[in-house]
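Appendix B. Worked example

We walk through a single record from start to finish. Start with the input: the chain for Putative Na(+)/H(+) antiporter subunit E, Microlunatus phosphovorus, length 214.
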Amino acid sequence: MTGDQETRLGGVIGDHAPEQPTTPRLTTRRRRPQLRVALVAAVVWVLLWGDLSIANLVSGFVLGLLITWVFPLPPIDFHGRLRVWAHTKMIAILLFDLVRSSIVVAAQAFHFGHTVRNAVVRVELRTHSDLYLTLTSELVSLVPGSLVMEGRRQESVLYLHVMDVRSEADIVAARRSVLAAEERVIRSFGSDAEIAAIEQGRAGWTRTEKGQGR
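Next comes the structure step. The output line below is what the pipeline stores for this chain.
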């Protein structure tokens, strides 16, 4: 099914503008040694061997450096900070959604004769931060009845599998649920400028999005 156009909050927030950095600049930045990742790799290496020794620590650290050099992780620019109250609120809402959605999914499982219609919904996020996209995906996927099937970081788009979709209103509700999760993530970890952009969006800065489900 194809959803009607939906007006939603818009704008670009996050650490990256829509324009992508050039390849040489990105490559140079990625090729720097990632010492923290190498240290974590050294700890994991020691745990796997079950023997705390200088040789295992050094070999694990060197292996971690080699892996991060050959397979560099994309850089994550983070300029925000942890906001305790917003973070606590985000966790509380997540726990509430977990309980509520678990009850709904269980009721559907025992409702014999009820045909569950699923849909794949496209949701365009308002942030171009890889970190916020990942955290939003995790929040959405943890709740029963919804699962992020694919995330496109270049476009800041999530493809969401949603259970029991019977009308366009259900598709709109699914999109708004994802955008609400994104907002909670930004309010928990975002900078003052990012939160201000969210507030400006809530005040009426709109953008039109086309969503798809099937």
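Two observations about the output. The longest strand covers residues 146-152. Residues 80-209 form one domain.
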